[in-house]
Each structure stands twice: as C-alpha cells, then as structure tokens.
Amino acid sequence: MVLIKKHCITIISGIALLFFACCDKPLQKHSVTGEAQGTYYSITYFDTQNRDLSAAIDSILSDFDQTASLWVGNSLIRRINGNADSVLNELFCDMLDKSLRINRLTDGYFDCTVGKLVNAWGFGFKQGQDLDSATVDSLRQYTGLPLEIITNDGSKILRKARPETELDFNAIAQGYSVDIVANYLESKGITNYIIDIGGEVIAKGGKPDGSQWTVGVERPAESQFAERQLDIKVTLANQSIVTSGNYRKFYEKDGVKYSHTIDPHTGYPVNHSLLSVSVIADSAWKADAFATAFMAMGMEKALQYIENNDEIKSAYFIYNENGEYKTFATEEFKKNIVTQ
Description:
Blueprint: H1 2-23, E1 28-36, E2 39-47, H2 54-68, H3 76-81, H4 90-105, H5 115-120, H6 133-140, E3 147-152, E4 155-160, H7 170-187, E5 193-197, E6 200-204, E7 213-218, E8 230-236, E9 239-245, E10 250-253, E11 256-259, E12 274-281, H8 284-297, H9 299-308, E13 314-321, E14 324-329, H10 331-334
Antiparallel strand pairs: 1-2, 2-5, 3-4, 5-6, 6-9, 7-8, 9-12, 10-11, 12-13, 13-14
C-alpha cells in the first residue's frame, strides 16, 4: 500500500509539473471577424500555440450556410423546401431533431415549419404579400405538420406530411453555428474564447488576467435605425446568451407595425407588450430557440413556462407598460448581471 501511494504521488506531481510547464507558455490573443448568414461574426480566443484559425473558421461557417441558410440559393434547406431529392447530412438532422424537441417542449410556440408564413409576411428571402385572414388560414395548413427522417438505401431523406411545407431554421441556426465554432475551438485545445455571431454569444474560460467575459444587452430602440444603447451588462461563465426582440425587425404598413416574430398558433405576427427577451443557457442553440419561443408566447406565458419547467431558468424581459420601458429578470439571470 505504501508503494502504491508513493507511485500515485509521483504521478500526480509529474502531471502538476507538466501542467505548470504548459501554463508557462503565454496565451496569445487572436481576433477573427467576417460575415456569415447575412450578418457579422466576431471571435476572440487565446491560444498558447499562437495559431491563426481564421481560414478554418470562415470555412466552417461557409459550409454551415450551405446546409441551413435560406439566403443561399442551392443550400440543402432550400432544396428540401423545393422538394428536390436531397440527402440529409448529420448537421441538418441534428438541427431538425433539436427543433422538433423544442417544439414539443414549448407547446408549438417554436416551430420550424413556418417558412411559408415568414415569407408571406415579408420577413424571409421572398417578397411579402398582402395578407387577409383567408390567406393566413390557407398558409397555416402547411405548418405544424409531422416531419420524418427516413433511411433509403443507406441515405437519410426527409418525408413531409405535405410537400408544400417549408422549413425555416432561422430561430435556431445562428445559435447552432455559434456552438459549432465553439466545438471546433475546443477540439484544438482552446478553452478561453468568446464567439459572437450576429449578437448571439457564447463565452468559455476567461481572459488571461483572470477576469470574466462581459457582454451587453441592448436597450430596445425607438426605430430600427436608432443608435444602439446598452440596457445592462452581464458576465458569462461558460455560458451563452441570446436576445430576441421585435424592435429592429419589423415593418409598418397603413399605420400598423408588424413584428418579425410569427405566432405559429395564429399565423400572425405577435402583438403584445414584450419588446425583447434574453436567455442564458449552456448552449447557444438552446438560448436561441427559447428566446424565440418566449417572444412568441409573450411575457406572461413565458414566465409560467420558466416557473413550471427546468429546461430554462435564466431570462431577462424588457416590455412596454403604458409607453414606458420596464424590465424583469428571473432570479437565475440576476446572478449574471454586472452591478455598478
């Protein structure tokens, strides 16, 4: 027993020496910026090997667009929406599986089958159209329908209950791409980084000085062209934050403001007092999906969901009460708020 104990101490000491030797290498800061999914990306990471991974990251995001972007003419999702014979890749299958799971968890408030409605209301890549209740009802018949991945001759394909159904992964894809880049950095042994793709953020580790990553939550703007102002700042400790809001993505017609968030239950843009909701989760895809679902639900139903379910507990709501901005943070979210 004594000999075994001595050997254990020797091994642990050796590991400790190796660890400190590795830590003697300075962490080199790298910043990567570019465009993907019709928006920007900004990534900062610290690497002891001083590697420039910008080309690989750009390639990863470009490949992702070929699968999930509705703005890429020959992307996999566009081919599927057009009912072309298309073999699914694992990335598509995983996003679909996650989307259907969140759909079940949120009683249909998150729905990736709303593609026709999104385009009809003018928030997709197609020109919007004049809608009346009959048209909305006719489009709703293609949403909320079963989707099934089947294997044919060793290849996976998607079977839709109605061929007219069109998928839209925009409420999960951006967050999912954040996680893909994070997984890539982790595979390279990089554990101190922050990734921001279009305002959807994940942060791991911290800065070389020991401080945490800090990000801001935007205050709702009066118009889509207004200057951005921060409402609060939060720290992220191996977490992701995503904000979904209606104050920049909307249009006005005949004096009526139409939000880009579509309620799958009605087929209409949401019309409630909730201006934005920020969700903190352990992954960006999950924060993205639930932030969208909560915007569709409205504040009251979203808070009921948080109270009754363990899936998400950290959320921050900004809402309009008689023309005045109000905020509400769940107890879990308050732990991340930077106090002055």
